[in-house]
């Protein structure tokens, strides 16, 4: 398979040489150890792809691909780590949310209990105020009766004194 592609590349390189242009590597950059003619490179000092041995070109391609593989594996590792971190963070946040939800439920129950207690206290307060009003009325009635009794006693004493003084 590499042989069939190599023939096409070889033909293109020959055309490029006859046109005076450089094809570079497959990714559009000049391979290591070569210079671009436009940059003022020396043809005699810089070996072309077709001048380098096939084994060297394949070694360089293998090394390049191995570096790319290693970089891709590192990126996979980073992404897996990020994914694990994200999953851990999500679990922690779900746990915190569950705790907060439970706390909200407890606080709502506490609010309901406080509302019930407030209603009980208001009812008790109304009863006590009613009892106080009745007690005031009874105390006022008792005071009126006492006042009447004191006046009756005073009148009786004064009457007895007056009769004793004026009786012959």
Describe this structure in words.
The chain has helices at 2-19, 54-166. Mean pLDDT is 81; it is low at 1-31 and 33-42. The chain has 2 domains: 1-52, no CATH class; 53-136. 0% of the residues are buried. It contains 2 helices and no strands. It is mostly helical and 168 residues long. The chain is rod-shaped and about 170 Å long.
Offer a quick outline of the entry.
With 168 residues, the chain is mainly α.
Rg result? 55 Å
Q: In percent, how helical is the residue content? A: over 70%
Give the termini separation: 163 Å
- Report on the biggest sheet: none
Name the structural class. mainly alpha
Task: Name its key features.
168 residues; 78% helix; rod-shaped
Give me the secondary-structure topology.
Layout: H1 2-19, H2 54-166
């Amino acid at each position: 398979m590499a042989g069939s592609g190599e023939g096409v590349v070889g033909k293109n390189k020959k055309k490029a040489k006859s046109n005076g242009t450089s094809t570079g590597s497959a990714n559009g950059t000049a391979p290591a150890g070569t210079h671009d003619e436009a940059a003022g490179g020396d043809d005699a000092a810089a070996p072309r792809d077709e001048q380098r041995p096939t084994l060297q070109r394949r070694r360089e391609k293998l090394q390049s691909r191995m570096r790319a593989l290693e970089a891709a594996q590192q990126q996979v590792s980073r992404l897996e780590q990020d994914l694990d971190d994200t999953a851990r963070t999500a679990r922690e946040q779900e746990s915190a949310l569950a705790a907060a939800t439970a706390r909200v439920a407890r606080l709502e129950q506490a609010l309901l209990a406080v509302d019930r207690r407030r209603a009980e206290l208001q009812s008790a307060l109304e009863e006590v105020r009613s009892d106080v009003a009745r007690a005031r009325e009874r105390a006022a009635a008792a005071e009126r009766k006492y006042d009447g009794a004191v006046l009756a006693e005073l009148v009786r004493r004064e009457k007895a004194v007056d009769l004793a003084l004026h009786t012959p």
